[in-house]
Structure formats: C-alpha cells, structure tokens
C-alpha cells in the first residue's frame, strides 16, 4: 500500500535505528551501561539509536519539534508538528538479552497524534498507522480482538519496580482484575503492549505514569485498529498524564470499570 511522505520517513528511520540496535543486541554483554536511576538504565545503544532517529527525522523535516526520552525537547519552527520518540522502549529487556523491545515514533499535529510506528526489530515486526488509513503490521491489516467476555480475555500492564510509590495502586488493579479474566502479562515494553492490543494479541492494556514517548505511537495504532484509548483518569490529557487504558471496543467499559474501581 502507499504511505504518506511522513510515514515513509518514519519507517525508514525506524529500520535504520533498528539495524543499529540489533547489532548491539547481539553483543549485549559487552555494552557499557550507565545508570540513570533505580531500575532505569541507559546504554550506548539507546543513545546511538536516538541519534540516528534524530538525524533521519529532523533531517527530513527540520522545522518540526522534537520530544524524546534521552534528548529532551526541541521547539521547531513549525509549532504545530512534533516528533515524539522513544529510541528503545524495553531497555531493561534489551540489557538482559530478552528480545522484547521496540522503537516508537509518533507524529503530533496540532495536539493530535496523526501517525505512529512501533518497530520490534528483534522480530522484524513493524506496527504502523496513519489517521484514517487503518493500522498494519508489516503487510497485514490489524484489527483488535473480537472477544467480549472478560473471563476469556488477557490483559497487559506494567508493574512498578524499584520502590515506585504507585505499586499499591497496581496491586489493587490486579486484585480486582485477576479473578475475572484469563490472565495478565507484564512484558516490560509499553509500546509493544499497545501494539499487541491493536493486533488482537491482548484484549487490553493499562499502566500509570508513563511518558508521552511511551504511548504516542501506540494511541493511533490502537485507534486505527478499531480499539479505544483513554487516559486512566477520565477527561485527563493522555500524553500529559501518561496514565493510559485501552482495549477493544466490546470489552472496554467492563475492563475500565475493573481498573478504575
């Protein structure tokens, strides 16, 4: 299928950064790693991937703004458009040799995410979407799961680590959800959790205190696959709060009631 110029730029950037990350992933034991905080690591591979993405994305669209995990924010000459980028979502998995991590690129226009790419380079799965054009994984059209019964559904979340204060909230969520569903997965890469909801692999996903770069691309991919995405606190700004809930439309309300309490 034909993609827009901007989406083609995003795909090219993701693949180039993905090649760099895969090369480093094969030598993960030799990476020099610095520590940003408890349970939050940054590697040379992460920084190199962000540099590639910045060169590709801002090189092609130098007037756009920029927001990324490592490099912070840059105001562009065009105040209506901004790249929102996570060069390596699932860093801890990467550093432990677990092949479950991704590059996430969202394009924001006038406060709305209009295109998104999530690239699982280890498995060569490229999830992508543009507003009004549907969602895809490589050459396959994506649709959210059609399941309607909670007891047949599996969900994904992130469990806080390293003494984060939101652990009790998540444990409360699990206490309400686990008795009424088929299981909960914690795979450590929020962007891929959202991509998997879009692909129908999970029925839903929720997590608190993420960042805009974790969820920007996932929001449009889930929506274009037919799912619903909201801030965990109804009416809040999703990208500002970073607390998200998403699911297929048939099960969203029941799932949201279980999580929101």
From TrEMBL:
Keywords: Hydrolase, Magnesium, Metal-binding
Binding residue positions for Mg(2+): 69, 86, 88-89, 214
Catalytic activity, EC: 3.1.3.25
GO molecular function term, any single one: inositol monophosphate 1-phosphatase activity
Entry-linked InterPro entries: IMPase, Inositol_monoP_metal-BS, Inositol_monophosphatase-like, Inositol_monophosphatase_CS, Inositol_monophosphatase_SuhB
Membership in a protein family: Belongs to the inositol monophosphatase superfamily.
Protein name as catalogued: Inositol-1-monophosphatase
Organism per entry: Pontibaca methylaminivorans
Highest classification ranks of the organism: Bacteria, Pseudomonadati, Pseudomonadota, Alphaproteobacteria, Rhodobacterales
